[in-house]
Amino acid sequence: MQKRRISREVKLGVFFVVGLLVFIWGVNYLKGIDVLARQLRFHVVYEEVDGLLESNPVSLNGVKIGQVDRIAFHPDGSGRVVVTAIVRQHIPIPANSRAQLSGDIIGEKEIRIIMGDAPHGISPGDTLAGSVQPGLAEEISRQIIPFRDRAEQLMIQADSLLTALNIVLGPENRVKLESSIDRFSQTMASIDHTARQTELFISEESDRLGAILANIESITRNLEDNKDVLNHILQNMSDISDLFAGDQFAQTMEQVGESVSSMNRVMHAIESGEGSAALLLNDDSLYIQLRDASGQLEHLLEDIRKNPKNYFRISVFGR
């Protein structure tokens, strides 16, 4: 039986198909897609995907489990972006998981799966909830904004302070300020001089101060030793105070008042010329008579001194 020979065209066709399949497999392999493994395709909707590219990784707990397959606008015309991702199907992803768009320090984007706790996993074609992690620039900006606002406030306050200083340090106020500074310097010099004088006085009078302190200590000790005597004196003073506050003292003061009133009446009668005492004080004839009698008595005493024989008789023998 004559063998059927395969034509050259068929061989070329088979070779072309096999080469095309190998090429497609190689391209997908280089992209990280294993066309021979079972894969799960899902979708995520974002408001924007700045920096995200097709073939960017999809990771779970830092381990790559798939990649971004397609990026397109949402068909509803809202401008949102639908990202289609492919992951290995044997990795269970709960239905309430989130797909967070994040980037590293050099700006490379990826989708991180944040696991949920739903009892069942996603199915091919499901849509996961999407979220966007702030990038490094956004985080730095968010941290710097409060400092920027504070710096602006400080600049405004500094400007107000400089304006006030310009007013205070005007020509007229500058002269007053310099005068005040000079007076303050003089005051400080006076205080320093007083302090030096005080220090010198204390140094020179240290012995006397020591003696004074010793005397004070001795007095204090004596007061402590004579505490009973002081208590007795204070008790007596308290008794005297009680006596002044008693009824007897009041009666005595009342009698003194009456005596003073009587004395006032007598003095008034004398001044008005009533009674013998008034005549004695007001009539000068009695004074004149007393003066004449005093003169005569003086002459008599002088005559007795000169001529005692005329008044005294002295006998030696008793005759």
SSE layout and pairings?
Layout: H1 8-31, E1 39-46, E2 57-60, E3 63-73, E4 81-88, E5 98-103, E6 109-114, E7 127-132, H2 136-168, H3 171-204, H4 206-225, H5 227-245, H6 247-271, H7 275-282, H8 285-306
Parallel strand pairs: 1-7, 2-6, 5-7
Antiparallel strand pairs: 1-4, 2-3, 3-4, 5-6
Please provide a written account of the structure.
This protein is α/β, with parallel strands linked by helices. Among the domains are: 39-133, Elongation Factor Tu (Ef-tu), domain 3, CATH 2.40.30; 205-245, no CATH class; 262-308. The protein is 58% helix and 15% strand. The protein contains eight helices and seven strands. The chain has helices spanning 8-31, 136-168, 171-204, 206-225, 227-245, 247-271, 275-282, 285-306, and strands spanning 39-46, 57-60, 63-73, 81-88, 98-103, 109-114, 127-132. The protein has a seven-stranded mixed β-barrel. The chain is rod-shaped. The N and C termini lie far apart (235 Å).
